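User: For my dataset I need records formatted as: sequence, then structure tokens, nothing else. Please produce one.
Assistant:
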Amino acid sequence: MMGTFATVLAKSKIATPQERYRADVSGEIEDVAGVLKITRIHVRYTLALKSEQRAAAQAAFEVYLPHCPAAQSVIAAIQIDHELDMQDL
């Protein structure tokens, strides 16, 4: 997911070097009919960028998920919540 989002950001000329871009991920595991199952994944992206890039970054964030092979592979079985924290450079 992180790579797909970075690819979409790159199309808007928003760089994602390691020191400016990260994802913090957590998940929830529940007992579903006696089987432990991952039911939810939460991804919080942190991106440092120029203030004039915020609108493009938000637009990229809103469209990347349907193009992400990893997310699309599990989205029918696992709820994916994601958020974007933008910080000024």
